[in-house]
Protein: galactosylceramidase
Organism: Streptomyces lancefieldiae
Amino acid sequence: MDTQRRRGWMSLAAATTLVLAAGVMTAPAAHPADDPVEVVVDGDDVRADNVNGLTYKGLGVLSCNSTSNLLMDYKAEHPERYWQLIRVLFGGKHPLINHVKVEMGSDTNTSTGSDPATMRTPDERADASRSPGFQLAADAKTVNPGLKVSILRWVMPAWVQAEWDKGTGADEMYTWYKETILDAYEKYGYMVDYVDPDTNETRDPDEAFVKWYKNAILTDTDFSNPRYDLPAAQRKKAENAYRSIKIIASDENDTHHIGPSVLRDEELFGVVDAVGYHYNTEDLREGDTAGDTYLPYTKLATGENKYGEDKEVWYSEGTASFGYTEYRVNNTEGPNGASTGIGGVQSALDLANRSVKSYANSKRTHYVFQPAIGSFYEGAQYSHKELVSARDPWSGHLHYDAAVYVMQHFTQFATTGWENDTNTAGIWRTVPEASHSGASGTVDIDGSNGAPSYMTLADPRKKDFSTIVVNDSDRTRTYRIKTENMRLGDPAMEIWETRAADPGQAYDANFKRLVDEIRPGRDGYYTYTVAPRSIVTLTTLDKSHDRTTRQRLPESGDRTVLDTDATGRKHDTRDDVLYADDFGYEEEGRVQVGTANGAAKASRPYLASRGNQPRYMVDQTGAWEVGQGADGGNVLYQYMDQSMKNTGAWNRHTPNTTVGDFRWENYKATVDVSFPDRAGGLATLGVRQQKGMAVSDAAYNVRVRPNGTWTFYEYGTAIESGTVAASDTYRLAIEAKGATITTSINGRAVSTYEDPTPETSGRVKLGTDFYRTAFDNLKVEKVDGYTPYARAQIDNMDGSVAYEGAWNRKASFGDAMDWYRTTSTSTDAGASFTVPFTGTGVDVIGGNDGSAVFDVHVDGELIAKDARTAVSDKRRTTYALRGLPDGAHTARFVLRSGKAVVDAFDVISGDVDGELDLTPLRERLDEIGDPVRADHTAGSWAVFDSAVSAAKAAVAGRRGLDAIGVEQITDRLEEAHAGLVREDGGPQ
């Protein structure tokens, strides 16, 4: 190792005369817009002695605020799918992800939801198993022993917050961290590698506390406390590992304070091992080029600073891909309404450009996705932002986005990770002089200008290199790469490419494919022209026969609706139960958990394996956990009480949690509630929740207090209230069938509400005030005569949906409340969309102003003329088509006037139980009688004849027909009859 470049941080006096050259190092030459891009990979620029700042660490995943909640259910119910996910993301010789970052939970909402606090009071023993992030890290280590684990805080538990606010909370903060770290060590066998003692996304780094915390780690000798559960034989090993914890600071978002501070403060430089900041690709450029505020992060990474030591620089929180790439490719946001393919702002290629630009401009060699895995219910803040979607643990459905392939262009063609103490791990170095980005933007990266964007990684022995090129523009770009001072063997270079499918190809036909092999020309340059909207890796590695590199991502599998038996465990569509949970979980088996620092797996009881967290529940706020009830059986408690509520939550809500399937439509939800906290309480049951993170985001919810007073709400608006006899336990029930919402308490109906513009589908919510509250015997049941759920959902950008006329099909900068952040919008009279489906109807979903008027055709027949749409919020139905025979259909909607915003289509199931009342339809048929066809115009008669045929088929008995279908058939019959036009112009 070069001691001149790697002198210790304490040798400040000997280094003070070091003068920095302007710009720190030689940058790549500026590239004219249209000329070939020339890249020189010079072996003299491959800094094998730089073991921290220029080693390429690859990618990380952030687990926080409920984003990983449902993973524990995948592991318990579909272990084969779960462990496959672990292998895909973390396994192999070239893992995609090398780091799990855990944001410490506090039972409060810090964006999409809440993660459990590992210590809710100072007296409670820490329990890291409550947090899915600690368990995810343990499992990932079984396939990636070198995986790093880091933690930081955002919101503190109230007992820490109270002391911190007094200015005396350092010891409490340290206790919370230490006991959590040691509990994870005891349960899973790994020691956390990095801690950020400061708060997440601070704008004012607490440098004094960072120093205090590091000193506390180094001087701590207490490892025998019984609270830590460390066997005597393990204590010394634990102590040594604990003292090796490194410090990262300061996870800033829109400020750059920590870089200059580390450079100017010798003590802080010695304490901090890595610096990180969020959502910005740029270094700081202030003052004199030799000063601490000019390119401070570059100076830290390169070691070209007055201490002569290099530090790690992380993009310590960044976005993943927005929405599903297979839907995004059908956008019209390119030039002249063309698709941007796998590119465009907030796309998979945007992610690639973020990685390139954050390295080129601020030397960050590690990118942490928030999140890489989306395992929380859609509709919460920041929905549809992940590499992998894992939201249906009952079905085992997993969706791997094309962004995984795109990011593998960086990780599968290099040896990534952290160098060892002897600098012999062979981790590839980034090469600053052979890396550049001219893409626009600092947060969302737009490569449509066609400017060069490339990053070079090289073997520290100089035997191989890979250059990753991103072209997120609509034109080709030629690259010429030359090597100097390298020790290449076979000079052949493979070209691996990912881009969207050509017409007629399968969606993933061009994902991470070996497309060419080239050699240097007579002038020594490798020359290759990069296709529009693509990423390529040009590598001297021989990957042509490597099975892992060629491996396709797993298929998603069916996204089956949650419909179980009475245990809540087994899929069963034949009974009248949609879901049930008595919180006992006797039906659940033992669960495999990674232990021994990844060296083994241990079989643990269901609840113990998951820190007593309930099945399928995603917490938005509160401490929701299974515990022993008054009768000795299990109940679900919300533990966050008055003593725990005063925290600095970002999204302040009363405690609530969500469970179920967004496709549920007509059902009855029931739950028992009781109030063990004598100080007060409130219990809420809600139904048809589609989006939002408050209990009032359930479309219909009833709230009861211990004294029996109750109120029924539509969202957050009180509709009706009253009082029932006070009781130790209340059984709350809400039945939602069509527009009729009936609330019952203790078996007696207390409210019936007819909603003129109903929310038609969604999940179940439970909620409380800040008092300990108990829930038991949750049951969701089907309603006789009504379809219980939509069979499937089709996105507006799905390839099966056809559009004619002028449509704006948007994906970039999409709203998280739009399904997959996409919409299709038109104001063009005559424009149409056609959707094929199998079921008894289809709902058109989207945020609409109600101005759109459609002609509706089914299987080639006009069945509704001038059909009006409803004013609808995002994720709500603007037009419902029901009452069709259960089977394959094609529906065509022709816009007559107004503005139509199409987000998704819910396909209605034909699974209906119970008897139907067909009397009103029969009576209407009798009233209409038998009009004479010859007396009416052909156009009006065709609509009428279709409506009569449908009505007669319905009264004769039709499989899959439900009450809402009968209502619609009746309405269409009346409208068609009223729309008959006589040939002679006389009255009907």
Summary: The first helix runs from residue 12 to 15. The longest strand covers residues 887-897. The chain is about 20% helix and 30% strand.
